[in-house]
Task: inverse folding
């Protein structure tokens, strides 16, 4: 360990001083190099998640025929390939969406079931006229808006997801319409939408 | 002292100065004598030592990955000899440690023991408290059960809202955007490595500083001084034993909880933090919208900062009074918020539902239901994991997803309950209350295929009820388009039939029901079907045309239905009626001519196409629904039943 009184003593003679400065400097550099290199290697590996970008998957969630135009939300699990470190899980449930259509001619609207407040899954009971979050009791109208506006703990309305309808020709010459959504994960707790990825 | 021992001690003392060390450690002066009020610090050390010991042994079994975390904890709990005790000690000591910390903290503030020259004692103590809370938070996730997973998810989600680096911090803690392997490895490294190392370091400092300044005696003139050993040590040990007794009692009485395995796709609607974080949870409900950062960061941050500054605030008498008031406010407030959180969650159990309280009541009821359902799920997964097939390498979630008992009600609720009812009319099961449809537009599927259920179709009163053909808009009642079955049953047992004849017909119908029910091949009726072979044979004869001799009308089942020797008559075909394959085919395409053909006016076809992309439900889901409706799932009391059905 360094001994301050000795350092002070050595300052009285200039040549000694320079030598001791070099010694101190060299000791710090080599010592730091020896200890910081492994620390840095560890930190770089530790910070890997910040350097990785993930993409929101495009997911087929339902057939259009599964979403009647009665304005009642229907719950659909979101099934997509999921990667977790060294594993790849094909076709896993990664979340859920509510689809609803306000008329047979209308396009479906998709809401992610993730609550914009703290990320719990918003529930819906058929017959209700509200979506309800089980955690901190946020509730939303069927158009996704907060039922009590700014008094609600949720800082914003339910997050809508982009919907795309795709016609698929099948072998027999028939075709079906599929509902695809871009399953975006939004940061919770903010007034504006920010993607997490 | 025995000479050889003395010489060993002398040898050690010459080289390491052990006598001084021991004297310093044991013969610390206790001003005013040993007292019970000094035990709290020591009990905390003892609690930490317990956690270190039990933690290291748990570490020898625990395996942090999404396919092995829950599984290894299950192994501790159910397979290791005394594993439940080891885990119980670790689980409950963690909780008691929070209580002891609170007591220690209250005492330090109350007595003003934080004042000069003990500021650094206090600061290291505050850091230790934060480290212990960090250990609690990280430890809650490690079993990777639904409760820990979803509660911690909310916790990290909130952390991500912290100003500036929140989102990055969350990513670092979680090891990516989503929870997974890296979340477990990181939380485990924090829980078993980083935080304990910090704790040991700061605890060393804390104790050293305490020794340097001596014990803060409340009342040094109270009696003669004594030394730490043995007087105070005895009191400390008795207190430590008391703490252990409480932990043991909790372990034996309640055991450490293990929920069902974490399922990222199925949220746990009763997710709550551990009881000591409940006040924070409740506090958040006060802050709507973006004000949340006040509840989650700013106010708690200010409070913790003020707590760190207490030794300086407490220099004056007024400052000390301020500290004591703040202490009372903090603990009183936390107790109030905790009580409020518990009351909110249990509101529906203590109150009647009224106009004004319905939102609150419903939220509480939903919480209690979710909690009860989660407990049942957890029991069931354990049952499956203990079965002879054990847990597959893909993890316990595979068991959950493949179990009709767990998945059936969920799939049924999503795809069937909109029209069908599912309730035992004689004895409604409160556990299945969420599957009751008060205004069904299709038959009740409870007990489908059983003798009892089939018997209802042959009973004039029951067939007219909403549980059979009497539902809203039914085309199968006497004024409907397809009233043949309904009319047949009513005519067969009409008013003009005399009592003797009625009895004969009823007996014949019972045989018909037994024979038809045998077609289903239900595992629950397996033994009964074997025992009643003769009855079933008679019933088969009746269905194949014998009924015509019993009924005045001369009608029989095979006038309309195909069965046994009477093929190509009509539908629904009764061969294999309600058997697994019959039901799978039926759900796939109910309008098939084997089933309802043109009579089918509302039942959707769930998988009519060969190309699975066109179907509403995939084969696996159909099988789970059918197996659940038929009661075909693994039962530990009849391990053979499940394999029969496969």
Result:
């Amino acid at each position: 360990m360094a001994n301050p009184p000795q350092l002070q003593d050595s300052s009285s003679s200039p040549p000694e001083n320079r030598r001791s400065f070099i010694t101190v400097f060299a000791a710090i550099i080599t010592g730091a190099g020896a200890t910081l290199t492994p620390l840095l290697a560890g930190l770089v590996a530790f910070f890997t998640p910040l350097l990785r970008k993930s993409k929101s998957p495009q997911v087929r969630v339902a057939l259009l025929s599964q979403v009647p135009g009665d304005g009642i939300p229907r719950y659909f699990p979101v099934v997509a390939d999921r990667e977790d470190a060294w594993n790849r899980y094909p076709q896993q449930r990664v979340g859920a969406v509510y689809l609803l259509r306000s008329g047979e001619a209308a396009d479906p609207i998709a809401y992610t079931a993730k609550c914009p407040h703290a990320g719990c899954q918003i529930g819906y009971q058929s017959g209700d006229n509200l979506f309800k979050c089980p955690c901190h009791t946020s509730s939303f109208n069927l158009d996704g808006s907060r039922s009590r506006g700014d008094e609600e703990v949720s800082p914003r309305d339910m997050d809508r997801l982009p919907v795309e309808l795709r016609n698929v020709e099948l072998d027999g010459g028939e075709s079906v319409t599929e509902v695809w959504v871009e399953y975006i994960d939004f940061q919770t707790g903010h007034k504006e939408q920010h993607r997490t990825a | 002292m025995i000479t050889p021992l003395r010489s060993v001690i002398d040898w050690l003392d010459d080289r390491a100065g052990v006598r001084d060390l021991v004297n310093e450690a044991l013969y610390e002066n206790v001003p005013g004598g040993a007292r019970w009020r000094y035990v709290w610090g020591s009990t905390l050390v003892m609690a930490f030592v317990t956690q270190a010991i039990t933690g290291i042994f748990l570490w020898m079994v625990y395996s942090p990955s999404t396919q092995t975390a829950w599984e290894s904890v299950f192994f501790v709990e159910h397979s290791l000899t005394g594993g439940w005790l080891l885990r119980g000690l670790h689980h409950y000591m963690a909780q008691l440690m929070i209580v002891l910390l609170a007591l220690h903290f209250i005492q330090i503030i109350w007595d003003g023991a934080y004042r000069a020259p003990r500021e650094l004692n206090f600061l290291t103590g505050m850091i230790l408290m934060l480290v212990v809370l960090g250990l609690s938070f990280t430890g809650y996730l490690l079993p990777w059960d639904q409760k820990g997973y979803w509660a911690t998810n909310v916790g990290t989600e909130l952390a991500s809202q912290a100003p500036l680096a929140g989102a990055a911090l969350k990513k670092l803690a979680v090891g990516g955007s989503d929870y997974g392997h890296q979340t477990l490895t990181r939380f485990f490294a924090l829980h078993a490595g980083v935080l304990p190392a910090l704790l040991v370091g700061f605890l060393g400092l804390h104790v050293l500083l305490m020794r340097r300044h001596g014990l803060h005696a409340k009342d040094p003139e109270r009696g003669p001084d004594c030394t730490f050993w043995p007087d105070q040590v005895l009191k400390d040990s008795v207190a430590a034993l008391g703490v252990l007794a409480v932990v043991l009692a909790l372990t034996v009485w309640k055991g450490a909880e293990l929920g069902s395995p974490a399922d990222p796709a199925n949220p746990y609607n009763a997710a709550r933090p551990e009881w000591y974080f409940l006040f924070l949870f409740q506090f958040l409900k006060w802050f709507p919208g973006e004000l949340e950062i006040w509840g989650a960061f700013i106010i708690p941050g200010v409070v913790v900062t003020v707590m760190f500054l207490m030794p300086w605030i407490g220099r004056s008498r007024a400052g000390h009074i301020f500290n004591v008031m703040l202490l009372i406010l903090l603990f009183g407030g936390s107790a109030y918020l905790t009580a409020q959180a518990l009351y909110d969650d249990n509101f529906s159990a203590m109150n009647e539902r009224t106009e004004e309280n319905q939102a609150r009541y419903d939220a509480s009821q939903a919480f209690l239901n979710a909690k009860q359902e989660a407990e049942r799920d957890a029991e069931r997964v354990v049952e499956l994991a203990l079965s002879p097939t054990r847990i597959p390498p893909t993890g316990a979630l595979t068991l959950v997803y493949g179990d009709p008992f767990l998945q059936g009600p969920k799939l049924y609720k999503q795809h069937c309950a909109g029209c069908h009812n599912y309730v035992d009319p004689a004895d409604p099961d409160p556990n299945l209350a969420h599957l009751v449809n008060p205004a069904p537009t299709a038959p009740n599927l409870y007990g489908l295929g059983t003798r009892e259920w089939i018997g209802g179709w042959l009973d004039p009163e029951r067939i007219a009820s909403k549980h059979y053909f009497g539902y809203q808009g039914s085309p199968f009642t006497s004024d409907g388009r397809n009233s043949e079955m309904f009319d047949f049953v009513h005519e067969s047992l009409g008013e003009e039939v005399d009592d003797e004849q009625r009895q004969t017909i009823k007996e014949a119908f019972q045989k018909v029901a037994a024979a038809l029910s045998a077609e289903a091949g239900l595992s629950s009726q397996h033994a009964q079907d074997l025992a009643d072979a003769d009855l079933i044979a008679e019933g088969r004869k009746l269905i194949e045309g014998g009924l015509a001799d019993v009924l005045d009308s001369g009608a029989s089942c095979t006038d309309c239905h195909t069965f046994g020797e009477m093929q190509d008559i009509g539908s629904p075909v009764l061969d294999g009626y309600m058997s697994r394959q019959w039901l799978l085919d039926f759900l796939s395409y109910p309008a098939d001519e084997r089933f309802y053909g043109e009579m089918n006016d509302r039942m959707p076809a769930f998988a009519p196409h060969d190309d699975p992309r066109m179907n509403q439900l995939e084969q696996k889901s159909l099988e789970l629904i059918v197996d659940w409706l038929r009661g075909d799932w693994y039962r530990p009391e009849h391990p053979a039943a499940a394999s029969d059905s496969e």
Q: What stands out?
A: The longest strand of chain B covers residues 29-30. Chain B touches chain A through 49 residues (CB under 8 Å).
